[in-house]
Design goal:
Blueprint lengths: L5 H14 L19 E19 L5 E7 L9 H6 L4 E3 L13 H4 L14 E11 L5 E11 L15 E4 L6 E6 L7 E7 L4 E7 L4 E5 L6 E9 L2 E10 L2
Parallel strand pairs: 3-5
Antiparallel strand pairs: 1-2, 1-4, 2-3, 4-5, 6-7, 7-10, 8-9, 8-11, 11-12
Amino acid sequence: MKYISLAALFFCFSFSNNSAKAQTCDQTLWNHVYHNYRLIVHDSCISATGTVYSLIYEADGDIHIRLTVDPAYTYMLNSSNYSGELGKLIIEPVCATSITQADAVSACVGFSNSVFIPAVGEHVKCTGDYVTDNDHGWNEIHPVTSIEIVPITAVGNTSIIIPEVSVFPNPSSDFVNFKLSEKPSSPVYISISDESGRLAGQYQMLEMLNLKINCKYLPSGKYFYYLSQNSRHIGGGNFVVAH
């Protein structure tokens, strides 16, 4: 078992690579963000592509678009996106629908958002501020400057076999095993977070079927795990530590 930082390095590379693209975002939209103090900004202008999974019309006039991101953008998801938003990135156009929440009316007075609202199943490119919603913990693009329909491009070799993973024992007091259905030909990265989203460990599996992780040092509670391979999210779930 080895603690590594390769997953973190991949995050930084992907993040800087995306941010370096020439993009323009409308920063005046922040004037119409309801309770904007709750948002932690990571990048003031970024784009991500993916397929629209669902749309939720919020009482404050915003729309929560759940986006199944393309493999290149899975790094934008955190543990709360997986546990609270079905593993989707939230795309949030502001003042885009009727406002029924009294204290949210002032944020949209005199403003009408013209951002294109896609339909479920459409493949889109979304551009705006990349933030963490501190009230909920998940990552979002919020506010959204633009959404446009883009064609789906082929990603990698479609013949790659994605291994299945089993995690046991669950609950565990001393060790937890991650067992793959077959030996991976390229590194499988495992990231473990606690219920508050704090990182509890990062590991790598290569040319091995089983990884045994010491969880004696972890406080009792629920933990979420996420697996990626070749820049793709390939699995996830949770296990319980009970001392």
